[in-house]
Each structure stands twice: as structure tokens, then as C-alpha cells.
What does this fold into?
Amino acid sequence: MNKYELTIIINGKLDDETKDAALEKVKGYVERFGGTIAKIDDWGKRRLAYEIDKVKEGFYYFIYFESGADAPEEIEKRVRIMEPVLRYLCLSVEE
It folds into this structure.
């Protein structure tokens, strides 16, 4: 099992219900592909460094999980096409 950090930025214009649904969907992808979530850091709503699709703020989440080597690629395939997600990045975490 490898350790990973998945960073996602969700559109800041969304209501709480839609934002929470998007986060749950991402967590579901991690679990579906054999990952176990260690922790989730919620940084809340922050101003973006630059405007993305006329959006100036986003909700930042850092999801730390363990999984096999194939899981990050599969998760990224699905997160890439999610409408509420502005940006994402999945990194391998060294111990």
C-alpha cells in the first residue's frame, strides 16, 4: 500500500449541500478503488491565486489515503470530469 495526498478545490459559489455531495463523491471514488482514507484536512473557503472560470474563491480539501498503485490514476479520471471541482492534484507521499 502506498500513501497519497489528493488535493481538490471545489467551486466557492456552490451551496453547502452541493459542496458536501461533491466531497462525498470524491471520497467514494477513493474507497471504490481500494483506498482507505487516513484523514481529511478542510481548509475552508479561500481566495484563489488566480480566477478560474470567473470564480475567485474555492473550498480547499486535502485527502490523505493509502491504496495500491493503480488507484490514483482511476480516481483522477473521475475527478477530472466532475463539474464542481475546479482543480485537483494527487501526489505520492514519502514517509
Q: What stands out?
A: The two ends are 12 Å apart (CA to CA). The mean pLDDT is 94. The longest strand covers residues 36-52.
